[in-house]
Amino acid sequence: MDFKNFDQRHYAFVSPREGYGEWADDYEQCVPDLLDLKVLNHLESVDWAYAEPALDLACGTGRTGQWLQSRGVATLDGLDITPEMLEQAKTKAIYRHLKLGTVEHTELSPEQYALITMCLADEHLASLQGVYQEAFRLAKPGAMFVVVGMHPFFFMFGMPTHFDGKDGQPKAIHTHVHLFSDHFRAAQAAGWRLQESYEGLIDDDWIQVKPKWKKHQDCPVNYGYVWVKDHQ
Ligand SMILES: C[S@@+](CC[C@H](N)C(=O)[O-])C[C@H]1O[C@@H](n2cnc3c(N)ncnc32)[C@H](O)[C@@H]1O
């Protein structure tokens, strides 16, 4: 679904490549860990330290990579569509290889990763089929694909992914709303089996960071799915 049906802000929209290119310098100051790292902390079925090697799709500035490293992931590659975000990731020196590319067509070799992650990026994909298929192609038998994102119900409140541009004006980045059934259909068609799911709510921790969200207390804000590529 196109987010524009729900838009309450009516900011100008830019492409992910353009938006994150402009946002890269202060992206990390704007993204609370509650958004994605708290979800990763809740997932119980992933043995992070045994996941060798791992691939961080849409790695951005390397926030997810840092979290993975803190959980014992020793060999980690990253891929992102925005060179400016990759430049920031490079400075962290936590990735073995960083690649410029799209999550749907990575041009990486097949069946090489035991763990693949994608955090806070599915809303920028018009369709989910490509990324689930590509991740399945890259995954070793037995590998897991961890997908974390903003909850579709949250986008339906009318706020897209956005940032303050260098001219001081808010800019929205093309946003799409994917229901759980969209993820399930795309993942299952690609060959993935759902192993775990989690939905985060707007709780007291959130209200502390975003007091204006009090009116949304207990509404879903984010999600995490763990998919498995079963051995044949
Ligand atoms: C909100 S950031 C998330 C970055 C990081 N995973 C994190 O949690 O901080 C979204 C990232 O997705 C990347 N992105 C958007 N669409 C993409 C695509 N089709 N292929 C690869 N990367 C993409 C953007 O460049 C951006 O770095």
What is the name of the CATH superfamily?
Answer: Vaccinia Virus protein VP39
Radius of gyration: 17 Å
Q: Main sheet, how many strands, which sense, barrel?
A: 7 strands, mixed
CATH class: Alpha Beta
Low-pLDDT residue spans = none
Give the ordered list of helices and strands: EHHHEHEHEEHEHEEHEHE
Q: Work out the strand percent.
A: 25-35%
Number of domains: 1
CATH topology: Rossmann fold
Mean pLDDT: 96
DSSP strand count: 10
Can you give keywords for this protein?
232 residues, alpha/beta, Rossmann fold, 7-stranded mixed beta sheet, 9 helices, 25% strand, globular, binds S-adenosylmethionine
Commentary on this structure:
The protein has 232 residues and is α/β, with parallel strands linked by helices. It has helices spanning 16-23, 27-30, 37-42, 63-70, 83-92, 129-138, 152-155, 180-190, 204-209; strands spanning 12-14, 54-57, 76-80, 98-100, 113-119, 139-150, 162-164, 170-173, 193-201, 220-228. The protein has one domain: Rossmann fold (3-Layer(aba) Sandwich). It has 9 helices and 10 strands. The strands form 2 sheets. Strands 4-3-2-5-6-10-9 form a 7-stranded mixed β-sheet, sandwiched between helices. A 3-stranded mixed β-sheet has the order 1-8-7, covered by helices on one side. Helix 6 crosses helix 8 (180-190). The mean pLDDT is 96. The structure holds S-adenosylmethionine. Residues 16, 20, 31, 36, 58-60, 63-64, 80-82, 85, 102-103, 119-121, 124-125 line the site of S-adenosylmethionine (SAM).
